[in-house]
Each structure stands twice: as C-alpha cells, then as structure tokens.
C-alpha cells in the first residue's frame, strides 16, 4: 500500500477506533485482549484496497468481530483454569458513557457476566445487534452465515439474556446515592447502615485471580456480605475509597495505605445494591492505575 493509502487507512481506523474497542470489549471483557485484537485488525486493514470498500465502518467491525471471536475461543480455556470468580477488566469511563443509558447497561458488570454465559457466536451476534444495531446482513457477512441463521441466533441469545437480565436499569442518580450510602457505612463501620442499602439477596463476587486474596466463591445475602465487607475492607489499616465511574456505572476505587487495592462496581435495583463486583487482580487494574478514562463509541 502506498503512503497515501496508509494515511487514508489510518484516518479511517482512528475515526472508528473507539467503536471497535467497545465491540471488542463487550465480546471479550478484557481490555488487554482487545488491544491485541485491534492490532490484528489494523494489520489486516492496511492490506485492504480501500477503493473496493463501500462502508469502512462495517468492514472494520467485520474484521474486529472475526478477530475477537478467535480470541474469545482461546480465552475460554484460560477462564476454565482461572482461580476463583472471573470478572471483566474494569474500565474507567467518562461521564458521557454513564449518561447513555443503553451503553451503560450493556457495559455494566452484571450484563457483562450474563454475556459470559453465551456461546461465542451468540455473544457476537447479541453484541452487534443489540448494542450496536448492526444489520442482520452485516452480521451475517462478518460471521460467514446467512441472515436467516443470524436472526435465529439473535432470537436465541436475546431470550437467554432476557431470562437472566437484572431489573429495569436504575437511574444514575439513585445508583450514585446507593454508592454514597455504601461508602459512608464502610467508613463509619456501620453494619446497620450497610444492611439498609444492600438487598436481602445481594451477591458479592471478588476477583483476585490467584494473585490477591479473595473469596473463592460468591457470597450471598445481606448479612453475610455486610459482615464480610466490614470485617475485611472496613478493618484494614490505611483503608480509603474514592467514587468513580466504571463501565459507565457508579463504583468505588479502593486504596490501602495509599496503594491501589481494587475497584468495587455496583449493581443497583432502585435504591438497593443487588450486586457487588470487587476486582483485585492487579493484572486487571493497570489501566485504572494509569487514570486513563475512555470515551466509547
């Protein structure tokens, strides 16, 4: 490809990079893996004759989807050997992501974990169709399937997700209020205050990846979760927390003696916290440590 062709390819790739990153992340849940996918996408993209491409966005999404599917299948083997619960890599996001209700819901930890239960092809179809409104014809081209087959896969995936989907998306204001109540209860070691903001069937998942101590299984129920939180986080010397937005939703960044310890993302139904997702695996916190906020799409 000529220098002019590379410049044109670069311009198109950069223009769509945020979108491609988001597609890859919703399929993989790992920013590090998405970066590898985007590198592979770029290497293939610069070999394409742009004069033959009618829709650069669709073509780039097609390449990214195929590369992400290949990576997803290899990641499945890694996750099977993972120590303890696996959680998506948390992304520090800009406020505009939180204001986009549909995007914030699709990026939430709760939804990302639901997507983990889909087969790779189902996940690709669901993400492209539901989150990005890609046509059945474009998805079919990306997956080398017929539009009719893609429609069937989309229907099956949507039914699977709807059966597991949390309740109606809580407003940003209510979710932030729940986070504030949670933070205040931890800082003051107020068990009753914590129980007041936790739903009775709240679930806590903690991901240490075998590198930091974390419960090997989910903890369920307000009383158990509340006592675990106060007995662990609340009693650590040098404990501190800061509110932030992770995956477009309210979260807390946790510090111990001034060092980044992890991030707690929340699932909120109205005023009660239904899910706590505590990522402590240091390999998943490198982007967070750098303080880089992402504008997606």
Q: Do you know the CATH topology of the largest domain?
A: Nuclear Transport Factor 2, Chain: A
In the CATH classification, which architecture of the largest domain applies?
Roll
Overall body shape: elongated
Q: Strands of the largest sheet, in order across it? A: 2-1-6-5-4-3
- How many strands in all? 6
Report the sheet with the most strands, covering strand number, pairing sense and barrel closure. 6 strands, mixed
Number of domains: 2
The run of helices and strands is HHHHHHHHHHHEEHEEEEH
Count of helical regions: 13
CATH class of the largest domain: Alpha Beta
Strand content: 15-25%
User: Structural class, from secondary structure content?
Assistant: alpha+beta
Poorly predicted regions: none
How are the SSEs placed, and which strands pair?
Elements lengths: L2 H26 L2 H15 L10 H25 L14 H5 L1 H7 L1 H7 L4 H12 L4 H8 L3 H18 L7 H16 L3 H7 E10 L11 E2 L1 H11 L6 E8 L2 E8 L2 E11 L2 E8 L6 H5 L7
Parallel strand pairs: 1-6
Antiparallel strand pairs: 1-2, 3-4, 4-5, 5-6
Question: What can you see in these coordinates?
Answer:
The chain has a 6-stranded mixed beta sheet with strand order 2-1-6-5-4-3. 55% of the residues lie in helices and 16% in strands. The longest helix is centred in the first third of the chain and has 26 residues, at 3-28. It folds into 2 domains: 1-81, Rna Polymerase Sigma Factor, Chain: A; 85-117 and 164-296, Nuclear Transport Factor 2, Chain: A (Roll), CATH 3.10.450. The chain is α+β, with helices and mostly antiparallel strands and 297 residues long. It has helices at residues 3-28, 31-45, 56-80, 95-99, 101-107, 109-115, 120-131, 136-143, 147-164, 172-187, 191-197, 222-232, 286-290; strands at 198-207, 219-220, 239-246, 249-256, 259-269, 272-279. It is built from 13 helices and 6 strands. The mean pLDDT is 92. Helix 1 (3-28) packs across helix 3 (56-80). Keywords: Sigma factor, Transcription, Transcription regulation. One of its GO terms (molecular function) is sigma factor activity.
